[in-house]
Design goal:
This protein starts with 8 loop residues before the first helix and ends in a 17-residue tail after the last helix. The protein has helices at 9-29, 33-57, 62-87, 94-121, 132-149, 153-170, 188-202, 207-231; strands spanning 127-128, 174-175. By secondary structure, it is an all-alpha fold. It has a two-stranded antiparallel sheet. Helix 2 packs antiparallel against helix 5 and helix 5 (132-149) runs antiparallel to helix 6 (153-170).
Length: 248
């Protein structure tokens, strides 16, 4: 009987995700908002890698799933909540404190739901509701661009984005997962792959603008997809508590 290994490469990436989230909180508390935002982005990269490495190496496990979600509560829940509070929402007093709590609250809800339906139905390519790391990077990208440009309207935009991405995490709107890295796969996957690669390249040229633009497009892709489904006479479920047959 093979002994189960708790410490392996996927778990190491999960630990790095958790560590990046921890560092982000420290940087946000120190007033280094751009650094805190980039650390949230780095945490999301580690989060994306750990699951893929686990499945590719045959180390996927229930322990890894739970560990991954606990790490995301910090890096995709606590870290962006602290960041948006320190960045702007503290100016609103108790209202700002409540708004800042929403990303943490709904990320925890989203991750619990994800674990429940992944355990029941297995992992799928698409997501039900906006993934918590993507919601966190959306908020982070706004603070990063604001720190770079000093555009005042971005501070006000946080007031809209915080409740919006929080509700999108808990919704049942469909969001695309990562594309398959193969040009042989035609159709929607090829478009997603080209967009992903273009954004990746632009991150080396104009990182602040590229990340913000990509995240804004991703945010609206869920509602736009639901509208398109309605126009095509389909009936997408738009609710907070999904039926049990839905996956994350």
């Amino acid at each position: 009987m093979k002994s189960s290994k708790i410490i392996n490469v996927p778990t190491l990436f999960t630990a790095l995700n958790l560590f990046a989230g921890f560092l982000s909180v420290i940087q946000a508390a120190a007033g280094n908002y751009a650094s805190a935002g980039w650390l949230i982005f780095i945490a999301s990269v580690f989060d994306a890698l750990d699951g893929r490495i686990a499945r590719a190496s045959g180390h996927a496990s229930d322990f890894g799933l739970q560990m991954d979600s606990l790490g995301d509560v910090v890096s995709a829940g606590l870290a962006p909540s602290v960041l948006v509070y320190q960045f702007y929402l503290y100016k609103l007093g108790h209202t700002g404190l409540f708004l800042s709590f929403l990303p943490l609250l709904f990320a925890a809800f989203r991750l619990a739901r994800f674990n429940l339906y992944t355990h029941k139905a297995g992992k799928k390519n698409d997501f039900t509701g906006m993934p918590a790391p993507m919601a966190a990077v959306t908020l982070a990208s706004t603070t990063i661009l604001s720190d770079h440009t000093q555009w005042q309207f971005l501070e006000r935009l946080i007031l809209l984005l915080v409740p919006l991405v929080s509700l999108l995490m808990a919704s049942t709107l469909k969001y695309d997962g990562f594309p398959r890295f193969s040009l042989r796969v035609k159709g929607k996957n090829r478009i997603k792959l080209i967009a992903f690669l273009a954004t990746f390249l632009l991150l080396f040229v104009v990182p602040q603008y590229a990340l913000f633009t990509f995240m804004m497009i991703y945010v609206i892709s869920g509602p736009v997809g639901a509208v398109i489904s309605l126009i095509q006479n389909e009936e997408p479920e738009i609710s907070i508590i999904p039926k049990e047959e839905h996956n994350s």
